[in-house]
Amino acid sequence: MNAMTQNELHTLSNSHLDALEEETIFILREVAAAFERPALLFSGGKDSLVMLKCAEKAFGAGRLPYPLLMIDTGHNFPEVTDFRDFRAKELGAELIVRSVEDSMKRGTVRLAHPGESRNVHQSVTLLEAIEEFRFDALIGGARRDEEKARAKERIFSHRDSFGQWQPKAQRPELWTLFNTRLQPGEHFRVFPISNWTELDVWQYIARENIALPSIYYTHKREVVDRRGLLVPVTELTPPKDGEQVVLRDVRFRTVGDITCTCPVESDAATPEQIVIETLAADVSERGATRMDDKTSEASMEKRKKDGYF
What we know:
GO terms for molecular function: ATP binding; sulfate adenylyltransferase (ATP) activity. By secondary structure, this protein is of the alpha/beta class. The chain has helices at 2-34, 46-59, 78-91, 100-106, 122-133, 148-151, 198-208, 271-280, 285-289, 300-305; strands at residues 38-41, 68-72, 95-99, 137-139, 156-159, 187-190, 219-226, 229-232, 246-251, 264-265.
């Protein structure tokens, strides 16, 4: 009886993942059909790698109909950017990288002080890339379960000619019918894995045997405990006076700019072990790991209105 129950649960899980995969593939194909100059935002993180796997299934390896776009703060984890380059080359995909540092040189981004996180300033560089390449749709890996503002997002999220998101002007998406009409200068952000959860992502990674950057799995790292977050000790994030540096077994639930992304304590070395940890988690990825989401000035909703992902 127990074995039968396990089998039934396994079948149910696969059925659920099949439905999510099918929806994602449909959306990816819809973007290719509806827009002239789309691009897929690709950071090398787990969500974009899951999306890339679905794109492979949608179009075939080496046949992606749109380029990959990365907005680089210059402060990304090298394990992630190295994996990004490897995966793009492996797929034979065009990879476009635009840097916040270049925006700083142009004077379109000005930091309040040298140690300020560049994460929020990605909006400027992204909008500059959209103008440079005249992108009319950007495919992103955001999910509704990550954060409250993202829960408000449509799958096809309309952005005005300033790249801004207007939450009260979202278009209805009944019966999987997407309104893709655009006025000159406008574009869409499209989120094919909106309906996935963190647990779904890890179950899919396990099922499809998707390779990830090593920092997603347990490894030893020097950290300091700062307001309940394990801040990694790096040249960009040194310990403050009085803080004690400790060596912990950690992994990253999400990856981003070094200056605002924290690991969690974990000894999970495989996707299956992470699935078990995720089942027991009572704090979202961003809530547990992102320093920049802790202040109202850097709230996700404000950043999205300013053109953020």
